[in-house]
Amino acid sequence: MSSTPAIPPSLLATTPEELVPMLAEWNEKPFRAKQIMEWVYRKRTETFEEMSSLSKPLQAALAERFSLRTMKYARVEGSEDTTRKYLFKLHDGRFIETVLIPASMGLLGGRSDRRTLCVSSQVGCAYDCKFCASGLAGFTRNLTAGEIVEQVVQVEKLAGVRVDNLVFMGMGEPMANYTNVTKAITILNAQWGMNIGARHMTVSTSGLAPQIKKLADFPLQVRIAISLHGASDPVRDRIMPVNRKYPLAELFEALEYWNEKKKQYITFEFILIKDVNDSREQANLLGEVAARLNAKVNLIPYNTVEGLPWVRPSEKVQKLFRDTVASYDVMATLRTEKGHDIAAACGQLRLKQETADGIIDSAIPEQRKTIAAGV
């Protein structure tokens, strides 16, 4: 079995505090760390040779120790005035998706004046949510903090825009990659880094209760979104296998702890699937718990994944569901779904590319091959 060549770790995953002792080993002053970060994040240099304020020996030492870019842009689907989905090839040949959402389209409900980037945290996913394409080929590995940060850096360059809102709800379960995700958040938030406000970063989770409590104790005031998709255990069990490990009572207890520790609203993400979770009973249960936990509700009509049996409810049913939830004095929004034409459901573009490259084939069932091929 062939092994993937090792590459130096990404400088994008390194803080100035971590650089200082390395610089001391190279007989360099601590202030060089600030200079290096300015080259990386302000000037966005892509080679160490461009760091002209540093000596040639220091440039060479950095080049031997670190990488500045570890993934390659593969392609994009969408246009400037619509959702754009970027595909990146990682150093080990796998692919991830990063989605840029225009300022006029709010991802977590309503409209927004911010450009939102939806970043991935893993290659694939192990949680097997029944509506999602991300886990169809299984879980491969966690992304490093550098690979998470690099998605933002590369998309800003490719799109020619400043990203000012981040959501960790692309491929993967962010809470299952807690250490790398929180380090990336720290770098993305830092003034020397990407300088994105913590309140403009949202971590989405399928409901890993212990990690929710851990994130509640994380010092930055990030937001949280829960992929709920079922307001009772029997319904959620059918959609979200994670519910069998962390049932709703345990999840809601963790969210009560979140409310004690954080000042940020909870958002419930709820994909509406016809004859699965779109009943009046589910709407009432959702309204009750959202009111109790002071949560906002973002209703999302199911986004088609070829080969899966689910379909979206009619617009009439969608609006009735929204109005029922809102009747509990809960902020409830119904997303006008975008991106059907670019396979917007998480993971579809990556599956198509990895199938074409022969990376995934016999490892997944025939139905999943069909989905990956988009036929």
Automatic annotation (TrEMBL):
Gene3D superfamilies according to UniProt: 1.10.150.530, Aldolase class I
Active site, renumbered: 97, 346
Residues that bind S-adenosyl-L-methionine: 172-173, 204, 227-229, 303
Free-text cofactor note: Binds 1 [4Fe-4S] cluster. The cluster is coordinated with 3 cysteines and an exchangeable S-adenosyl-L-methionine.
Residues reported to bind [4Fe-4S] cluster: 125, 129, 132
InterPro entries: Aldolase_TIM (IPR013785), Elp3/MiaA/NifB-like_rSAM (IPR006638), Methyltransferase_A (IPR040072), RlmN_N (IPR048641), RNA_MTrfase_RlmN (IPR027492), rRNA_lsu_MTrfase_RlmN/Cfr (IPR004383), rSAM (IPR007197), rSAM_sf (IPR058240)
GO MF assignments: 4 iron, 4 sulfur cluster binding; metal ion binding; rRNA (adenine(2503)-C2-)-methyltransferase activity; rRNA binding; tRNA (adenine(37)-C2)-methyltransferase activity; tRNA binding
Biological process (GO), any one: rRNA base methylation
Keywords noted in UniProt: 4Fe-4S, Cytoplasm, Disulfide bond, Iron, Iron-sulfur, Metal-binding, Methyltransferase, rRNA processing, S-adenosyl-L-methionine, Transferase, tRNA processing
Subcellular compartments: Cytoplasm
Named cofactor requirement(s): [4Fe-4S] cluster
Domain Radical SAM core: 111-341
Catalytic activity as recorded in UniProt: adenosine(37) in tRNA + 2 reduced [2Fe-2S]-[ferredoxin] + 2 S-adenosyl-L-methionine = 2-methyladenosine(37) in tRNA + 5'-deoxyadenosine + L-methionine + 2 oxidized [2Fe-2S]-[ferredoxin] + S-adenosyl-L-homocysteine; adenosine(2503) in 23S rRNA + 2 reduced [2Fe-2S]-[ferredoxin] + 2 S-adenosyl-L-methionine = 2-methyladenosine(2503) in 23S rRNA + 5'-deoxyadenosine + L-methionine + 2 oxidized [2Fe-2S]-[ferredoxin] + S-adenosyl-L-homocysteine
Domain of life: Bacteria
GO cellular component: cytoplasm
EC numbers: 2.1.1.192
Protein role: Specifically methylates position 2 of adenine 2503 in 23S rRNA and position 2 of adenine 37 in tRNAs.
Stated family: Belongs to the radical SAM superfamily. RlmN family.
Misc: Reaction proceeds by a ping-pong mechanism involving intermediate methylation of a conserved cysteine residue.
Cross-referenced PANTHER family: 23S RRNA METHYLTRANSFERASE, RADICAL SAM CORE DOMAIN-CONTAINING PROTEIN
Family matches, as HAMAP family: RNA_methyltr_RlmN
Protein name: Probable dual-specificity RNA methyltransferase RlmN
Organism listed in the record: Roseimicrobium gellanilyticum
